[in-house]
């Protein structure tokens, strides 16, 4: 595993490869944008979300990904609005948040599911407005099979939060990430947060079907798709998660997908152990 040993990696991580563009240190970046980050994290619309902050560390994660408030950022597979609320308020002034939805023609999507995906993208601006209280005009969205003309090469960051395992088990991770790469500017960055399997987990366990992936596998996979590995952070790590649940990550909070006895065992463990990885688009 590519765990970083420098002391700063305990919080944010440090560059894993030579960084010609001299990314700012995450702690310094966080200090520079402290007011904007704090405003987003503490916005009243997130009142019910804050219980999860201790596990998902949105402030530290944004700083590690070096997401600035004036950037154009893609949120891959927006779900219940947890990160949409953070990003929406953080980017609500000078920046832009774009929902990136699956390519409906990839993966195991029947006609009804494809229609739901397209409807989700069409409805994202209004939904994000409802989530955040900001005008719908602040937001846009697309499905990855229908990238509008002029969007290629315009994104500063794309974030894939706890979704790569689904892309792996649906067998569309390579095509989706290639499309995302095309959306990024030269030198634009892809940030991934993903449930992490132990390095000695079997390939059958760590293939996405249980929700967990091995970190080295993820790094090698994304590198092969035209990215440079910039670094990793342990900010979303949870050593209390053994990451070997027979029924997968869904046994952990917040899903608690087991019976009463299993839920009692996992309820107080926190959320899953997660890798936090940053990649730069190669020329």
Automatic annotation (TrEMBL):
- InterPro entries for the chain: S-AdoMet-dep_MeTrfase_Alr7345 (IPR016980), SAM-dependent_MTases_sf (IPR029063)
Q: List the keywords (alphabetical).
A: Methyltransferase, Signal, Transferase
Q: Which residues form the signal peptide?
A: 1-18
| Gene3D superfamilies, A to Z | Vaccinia Virus protein VP39
The answer on whether this UniProt entry bears the keyword Methyltransferase reads: yes
Q: Which GO terms describe its molecular function?
A: methyltransferase activity
Q: Report if keyword Oxidoreductase is assigned.
A: no
GO BP, sorted A to Z: methylation
Read off the SUPFAM superfamilies from this record: S-adenosyl-L-methionine-dependent methyltransferases (SSF53335)
Domain of life, per the record? Answer: Bacteria
What protein name is recorded for this chain?
Methyltransferase
